[in-house]
Amino acid sequence: MAHNVIIIGSGPAGYTAAIYLGRAGLDPVMVTGALTPGGQLVNTTEVENFPGFPEGVMGPELMDNMRAQAKRFGTEFIADDVTAIESAGSDDAPLYRLALSDGETLETRAVIIATGSNFRKLGVPGEVELSGHGVSYCATCDGFFFRDKPIVVVGGGDSAFEEALFLTRFGSSVTLIHRRDEFRASQIMVDRAKENPKLTLLTNTVVTEIHGTETAPAAPALSLGGLALNPKPQVNVSGVSLKNTVTGETAELETAAVFVAIGHTPATDFAASVASRDEDGYIIVDGASTRTSTPGIFAAGDCVDRVYRQAISAAGMGCRAALDAQEYLSE
Predict the structure, then answer these.
(1) For a pLDDT cut of 70, what percent of the chain falls above it?
(2) Does the keyword Chloroplast apply (predicted)?
(3) Which residue from 138, 170, 321, 328 puts its CA 20 to 30 A from 128's CA?
């Protein structure tokens, strides 16, 4: 049996699309991902800039609420990954076959790709362990939490400079670290950074390790159903180890936060056969719509958007994708 529409991805774009399609009576199916349904927000602590939550909301809670709302309107969830999409119909009756990582296949009349993108990581010790505890990939999301504290930004492009300049509103100081002596950022961004007294540019330097310090003792041990639970102490970023790429000299720098801004990798390889992509892998859509190069294939969220990358803009794009798909299915 062919489904009306399958949504690939379960972040704000995917859940919003599911809500709209479910309310339209199209019985959407969502392939959420096998390991990390909910997108990047499940790894975020407090979200203060999503409308409707004046006191803020935890990222996982926001995603749980979106999922519950999509489920309320009849969305079916499949916890798996899509590995490929291929055409399985005719010009008169387009149909698409999705291959899943468990070997199963699904057929559908329309597809919405909402797989988002992944932050490129430094790949140094401490980065994973301290993610959400001082290591961040979004200044607008987390900058506020480091008011009057020293901050490090890693990167050399416009995004890194934008984040560094934004973070000077909060941090006592901001140090932007770049591995080369020349920046990829536009000259106007570099000039603004040099003119900002709170911002220091550190070139020919790489971060080799991120360190953490215990900031709160562990909670008392608990027993649940006979199982002993030993909570771990709270550990937050306290500093970084640095290495000069020219001289090989090493140094230590105290900081309360490390913002990594070295780019994104859109999760779109599985869709290469049905959707045109740019040189960086972002799916190309038609103008302000969500239509891709293949009729019946739509895309929304961070797998399309290389500029804004916010939960609210992804949700808005998910709405547009649902309306575009609804119009396509009614033709």
Answers:
(1) 94
(2) no
(3) 170
Would the pTM count as exceeding 0.90?
A: no
Active site residue 303: no
Res. 158: pLDDT tops 90? no
Instruction: Report whether pLDDT(230) > 80.
Output: no
* Catalytic residue (one of 141, 302, 303, 324): 141
Respond yes or no: is residue 319 known to be catalytic. no
Q: Are strands 173-177 and 199-202 parallel, antiparallel or unpaired?
A: parallel
Q: Are 167 and 175 in contact (CB under 8 A)?
A: no
User: Of the listed 64, 91, 102, 138, which one is catalytic?
Assistant: 138
Of the residues 142, 302, 305, 324, which is catalytic? 142
Annotated active-site residue 305? The verdict is no
The b/e string for 118-156 (b: 16+ C-beta within 10 A; e otherwise) is ebeebebebbeebbebbbbbbbebbbeebeebbbbbbbb
Residue 157 DSSP one-character state:
S
* Residues 280, 188 share a domain: no
Range of the domain at 90: 3-118+264-330
